[in-house]
Amino acid sequence: MRLFNTLTNKKEEFKPIEEGKVSIYICGPTVYNHAHIGNTRPMIVFDVLRRTFEYLGNDVTFVSNYTDVDDKIIKAAKAEGITEKELTDKYIKAYEDVRAGLNIEDPTYKPRVTETMPEIIDFIQALIDKGYAYEVDGDVYFRVTKVKEYGMLSGIKVEDLIAGASDRTLSVDDKKKESTTDFALWKKTNEGIQFDTPWSKGRPGWHTECVVMINKLFKDGKIDIHGGGQDLKFPHHENEIAQSMAYNGHPIANYWMHNQMINIDGEKMSKSLGNVLWAKDLIVEFGCNVFKWLMLSTHYRNPL
Fold first, then answer.
1. Nearest CA to 185 among 143, 220, 237, 235?
2. Which residues contact 70 (CB under 8 A, 6 or more apart)?
3. pLDDT at residue 165 in the model
4. 215, 252 Cβ separation under 8 angstroms
5. How would you classify the pairing of strands 223-229 and 253-259?
C-alpha cells in the first residue's frame, strides 16, 4: 500500500505503528446544519481507504468527531428557537442518516467536543504549565513562535504570517496576543453554552478539540493516518501539530491525507456562500451507488 503523505509531499509505502492494526482520525463536521455534498467527500474517500485496509486483513480503529460547540451553532440555535443541544442532536442524527444512506461504515468512535471538556481543560492547563500557552483576560492563547517546527505541514513560515499581519488592521483579539500568529485555545464567552475553567467561563478554541480527542483515544496521542479536507490543512491541522509537538513531542500522525474541495460553477461550495447541494436530497434523487460513483469518479486529491 502506497499513500500520498501531505506531511512529506510524496508517495510513501504505508507502514503502521503496530503490525496488522491501522489507526485513522478524520475531522468531522460542525453540526449546525445538514450535510452538504462537500461534507460527504471525505466520508466516502476515507471509507474506501478504511475498507481497503480491512480487506487486506487489518484491524482498523476509525475515529471521526462531531464539533458541537461553535459560534455558528449558537447563531443557528437562536434562529431556530431551540437549545444548542437540541440543534446539535438534530443535525448529528441527520448526518448519521446520510452516512447510513451512503452505506458508509460507522466509525469505531464518534466523540463529541462537549463530552471531552475535562480533557480539553487539562490539556490547555498542561500547555500553560509548559510555557507554550498564556492567559489574557480569561482567554488562553498558544505561543506559535515557541514551536520551531511550525509550518511543517503547510510550508507556511511564521515570519510570513507576522509580515502579513502588519498589512492589515489588527482586531481586538490580535491586540491582546503576544504575537498576531498566536491562536486561541480557550475563549471567554458571554453567550451560548459555557464551561467553568480556572481562566473563565467559556468554550475551547476549534484547533484544540481534535488533538485532545486523539490524545484521549490513542496511546501517546499518536496515530497512523490523520485526514480531512484540503481546507483544513492550514490553519487547523497545522495548529493541531503545533500543540502535539508541544504536548507530546510528535506531529500526531505518520501520514496526513487531504481530499480536495467540490466546486460549483467554479467556486468552492460552502454554506456561507449559499451555493449548497444537500446530500440528503441527492441521495434520494440519484440513489446511493450513483452518488458514490460520482464522488469517486475524480481522484480524491483533485477538485471535483
1. 143
2. 30, 32, 206
3. 79
4. no
5. parallel
pLDDT at 166: 72
pTM given for the model? 0.96
Q: What are phi and psi of 34, to 5 degrees?
A: -70, 160
Pairing of strands 10-13, 21-26: unpaired
- Where residue 207 falls (left for φ over 0; alpha for ψ -120 to 50; beta otherwise) is alpha
Q: Give the 3-state secondary structure of residue 148.
A: coil
- Whether cis (ω within 30° of 0) applies to the bond prior to 235 is yes
Partners of 21 in the β-ladder:
59
- How far is the CA of 216 from the CAs of 62, 113, 213, 222, in angstroms? 14, 12, 5, 10
Strands, E, within the chain: which ranges?
Answer: 2-5, 10-13, 21-26, 59-64, 133-136, 139-142, 183-188, 195-196, 201-204, 223-229, 253-259, 263-264, 267-268
Q: Of 117, 123, 139, nearest to 199 (Cα)? A: 139
Distance between CA 145 and CA 60 in Å, rounded? 36
C-alpha cell at 179: 504575537
Q: Please, what is the angle between helix 84-101 and helix 37-55, to 10°?
A: 50
- Residue where the block lists cell 480527542: 213
Those residues of the chain that have pLDDT short of 70 are none
Distance between CA atoms of residues 181 and 174, nearest Å: 8
Q: Is 145 helix (H, G, I), strand (E, B) or coil?
A: helix
With CA atoms as reference, report the closest residue to 228 among 243, 249, 214: 214
Residues 66 and 28: beta-carbon distance below 8 Å:
yes
- Residues 6 or more apart whose CB falls under 8 angstroms from that of 168 comprise none
Tens-place pLDDT, residues 13-53: 999 999 999 999 999 999 999 999 999 999 999 999 999 99
Per-residue pLDDT at 265: 84
